[in-house]
Design a protein that fits this description.
Number of helices: 4
Shape: globular
Number of domains: 3
Oligomer: single chain
Radius of gyration: 24 Å
Distance between the termini: 32 Å
Helix content: under 10%
Length: 538
């Protein structure tokens, strides 16, 4: 497709609707293969899967807003051969959000941010040798992650917000707000908030990246999901659940951890270390009505060796579950450690089974348990007041004391005398976080964005049953090729089309023989190459 296609279409459309052509909107519909800078005087709209690759670095200026197009279920993927330099500030954070208007944003409006690195993961091939893996809901080498470079750097995420992202594209196949696959320890992740994600807040697939000052707000499934041998260190985190939201296809946990999906003994172990988290569950009182699909604050299973220290949780449905003999043996042998933590105000059970009950009661683990309503004993300032959140412990709170950093696993952490993410004074959430993104204008979609979103490229219905239609409004007469592929890269069909200028071009595909699942429609022409995701379900 001619590169002038979208530009000319915009110019024609702008004349019709009377909008200035100087409006600062940039449509991103092709991979980034040379180093590029996005600046805060523009709003960037992502169409389809956008890859940063071939040695390119995507630099994003502080204060820049990037929006995901809903129809193409857009996703930004930093490949193993690319980097991101998103270096925001507290005063001017970088925002990835929905392209829908304020008041109309929803989970899964776009597919999120994924970073693929070359750090070790614990996947093995048929010969038992280290292997690479492909991101869920992706096809091709651009989605691959894993390697043998523990010092790999994928760049910087600092003072960044990611909102209304994620998608469930199949059984046990989901897109998260932020997906980190095999990301190495020289990558910087600091002060990152994910909000209203359709699946997990942040999922760490192997790698050893470190992170600090992270927030997961209103996610649908798990908040911190670790597997494939993740071995990084994460300190200072806030998790806040919204009482009417849980994953209807699974169980919503604050922490969920597996060594790998099959619970093998593959090395490296999933043995990441988390410290100083504050977890606010959905149950303000022990009688609060919450979604039945809520699970555990900590679900540690499938042979994981995850470690959690100096952390507080209040108001979750259930507390601790160390699941399966593999994880329980690691907990007994101190490979998996859960110590110096506080669990308060569970609406259900503080421990899942006899093993968990004994673990909590073991004085050597220094776990304080408080009954009653969520905040009765912890005395946080305002953990259940969305209009004026304050998660700092007040006078007399047990969270003000008990911080312990004698364990060698915490050698590189910043010691605190308190447990949880906050002391009684400082609030690291100030300025850069946003707990009401639904009402934030974000330079609300103007006529340019509405024209692009509604008319340029659309695939419907999605999910499709027996037929799917590709609709394109063309300003130029251009020739394109259209290829439909499934998640395994199989070409379902391919065709050529000559678009007619000034008319709605409808190209229909027969999907009656397609299995249920996710598919990609690749549109390619002279200087134009984009992917649109659609679904088949019956």
């Amino acid at each position: 497709m001619n590169k002038t296609f979208l530009r000319n279409f915009l110019l024609c459309s702008l004349a019709a609707v009377g909008v200035s052509a100087s409006a600062a909107t940039v449509n991103v519909n092709a991979s980034i293969t040379t180093s590029t800078t996005w600046t805060k005087n523009n709003v960037y709209i992502l169409f389809g899967d956008i890859f940063v690759k071939d040695g390119a670095t995507l630099t994003i200026q502080e204060g820049t807003v990037i929006k995901g197009n809903k129809q193409s279920l857009s996703r930004l993927v930093i490949t193993k051969t690319g980097k991101i330099n998103a270096n925001g500030t507290a005063a001017e954070p970088i925002v990835f959000t929905s392209n829908e208007a304020a008041g109309n944003r929803k989970r899964a409006d776009w597919a999120g941010l994924a970073i693929c690195g070359s750090a070790p993961i614990n996947q093995k091939n048929a010969q038992g040798n280290p292997d690479i893996k492909t991101l869920e809901c992706g096809v091709g080498t651009e989605y691959e992650y894993g390697g043998n470079n523990a010092d790999d750097s994928s760049g910087v995420l600092r003072y960044v917000r990611i909102e209304y992202a994620g998608y469930v594209c199949g059984a046990n196949a989901e897109l998260n707000s932020l997906t980190l696959g095999g990301v190495g320890r020289k990558t910087v992740i600091s002060h990152v908030q994910v909000s209203y994600g359709q699946d997990d807040g942040i999922e760490f697939f192997g790698g050893n990246v470190n992170a600090d000052h992270i927030v997961s707000y209103g996610s649908r499934d798990d908040d911190m999901d670790t597997d494939d041998g993740f071995s990084g260190k994460v300190q200072f985190g806030l998790i806040v659940r919204v009482d009417t939201i849980a994953d209807q296809g699974d169980i919503s946990n604050a922490f969920e951890s597996d060594n790998d999906p099959n619970g093998t003994y593959n090395k490296p172990n999933t043995g990441g270390v988390f410290s100083n988290f504050t977890i606010v569950g959905p149950a303000k009182t022990t009688t609060s009505t919450i979604d039945a699909k809520y699970g555990w604050a900590f679900r540690l299973r499938r042979n994981t060796a995850l470690n959690v220290f100096n952390t507080i949780v209040l108001g979750y449905k259930d507390g601790l579950r160390i699941e399966g003999t593999g994880a329980q043996n690691k907990a007994t042998n101190d490979t998996l450690e859960f110590e110096h933590n506080i669990i308060a105000g569970c609406a259900g059970n503080y421990a899942y089974a006899a093993f968990d009950t004994a673990y909590l009661a073991n004085a050597a683990h220094d776990i304080r348990v408080y009954g009653g309503n969520a905040n009765d004993s912890l005395k946080l300032a305002a953990p259940y007041t969305p209009s004026a959140y304050d998660f700092r412990p007040g006078a007399g709170s047990p969270a003000l004391t008990g911080g312990t950093f004698t364990n060698i696993k915490l050698a590189d952490f910043a010691p605190t005398t308190y447990v949880g993410a906050f002391d009684g004074t400082n609030n690291w959430l100030d300025s850069w976080t946003n707990f009401s993104p639904q009402t934030t204008p974000y330079a609300a979609p103007n006529a340019i964005e509405d024209v692009v979103t509604g008319s340029v490229i659309n695939v419907y219905p999605s999910p499709a049953s027996d037929k799917v239609t590709l609709a394109i409004d063309a300003a130029d007469a251009v020739d394109i090729t259209i290829t439909v592929i499934d998640l395994n890269g199989k070409v379902m069909e391919a065709t050529a089309a000559s678009l007619v200028s000034g008319k709605n071009n409808n190209i229909q595909f027969n999907t009656s023989g397609y299995a249920n699942g996710v598919y990609f429609m690749n549109l390619r022409g002279n200087g134009f190459d984009t992917n649109i995701r659609f679904f088949v379900a019956r």
